[in-house]
Amino acid sequence: MSLFDLTGQVALITGSSRGIGRAIAERMAEQGARVVISSRKAPACQEVADAINARYGEERAIVVTANISSKSDLENVVAQTLAKWGRIDTLVCNAASNPYYGPQAGIADEQFRKILDNNIIANHWLINLVSPAMLARKSGSIIIVSSIGGLRGSPIIGAYCISKAADMQLARNLAVEYGPFNVRVNCIAPGLIKTDFARALWEDAPALDERMQTTPLRRIGEADEIAGAAVYLASNASTYMTGQSLVVDGGVTI
């Protein structure tokens, strides 16, 4: 059996109707997992689930919509997953928000709160909903999609960077708590990826050119290039890895 085989696993992936989340769901399904596609909009989620089921067979993907800012929505997505498949082996906290670009002094209170609530508190809620069964079973992998923004400062996305640094610390803390129960908690820290979420960054031609010149691989990433890291963290290939932030950035941070 391949170290990366996910046959028999159930994976819940937030923000999986597009971008990085969709790529993770598709690659986990390719490795044999049953996946829960979740975001705010049902039609977008259904399109992803239909594509996965058409490729790998019915009942490989289901849709449960959720707004991560709603604790009751998160309770529902976990409840429906357990009702359908009875377990969650891998949780991927991918959904996030960034409604503000500019200096930290200019951010409105409600924008800052939205970033912190959706990028940190929502992850805390969802992990607390999923982890008890993992701890009881003494098996599970929790993956938080953070960002290299959590490793350095920025003049335009400072609040987002703050939230992503907090996600890395959330993973470290929970890794310490959950380690004795064989439940692993790790982050993936992508660099600039060509997704709708990061459009404001890669559509700025001068900024993109500067980024490419300071990236050893001389390009930005694609969503599918993050999916492999998630498969690794969900699989037996990473059973001795916890509390870490796996950087996938084309070499920017070196």
Q: Specify the helix fraction band.
A: 40-55%
State the major sheet.
Answer: 7 strands, parallel
- Under CATH at level 1, the class stands as Alpha Beta
| Radius of gyration, whole Å | 17 Å
Classify the fold: give the CATH topology. Answer: Rossmann fold
Individual helix count? 8
| N-end to C-end Cα span | 35 Å
β-sheet strand percentage: 5-15%
Q: What are the secondary-structure elements, in order, as H or E?
A: EHEHEHEHEHEHHHE
Count of all domains = 1
Write down the overall mean pLDDT: 94
How would you describe the overall organization of this protein?
The chain is an alpha/beta fold. The chain has a single domain, classed as Rossmann fold, CATH 3.40.50. It has eight helices and seven strands; from the N terminus they run βαβαβαβαβαβαααβ. It has a seven-stranded parallel beta sheet, with helices on both faces. The longest helix has 29 residues, at 109-137. It is globular, with a radius of gyration of 17 Å. The N and C termini lie far apart (35 Å).
In short:
The protein is of the alpha/beta class and 254 residues long. 46% of the residues lie in helices and 14% in strands.
Give the key terms:
Rossmann fold, seven-stranded parallel beta sheet, 7 strands, 254 residues, alpha/beta
Q: Which helices and strands appear, and what pairs or packs with what?
A:
Layout: E1 10-14, H1 19-30, E2 34-38, H2 42-56, E3 61-63, H3 71-85, E4 90-93, H4 109-137, E5 140-145, H5 158-178, E6 183-190, H6 199-202, H7 205-213, H8 224-234, E7 245-248
Helix pairs in contact: 1-8, 3-4, 4-5
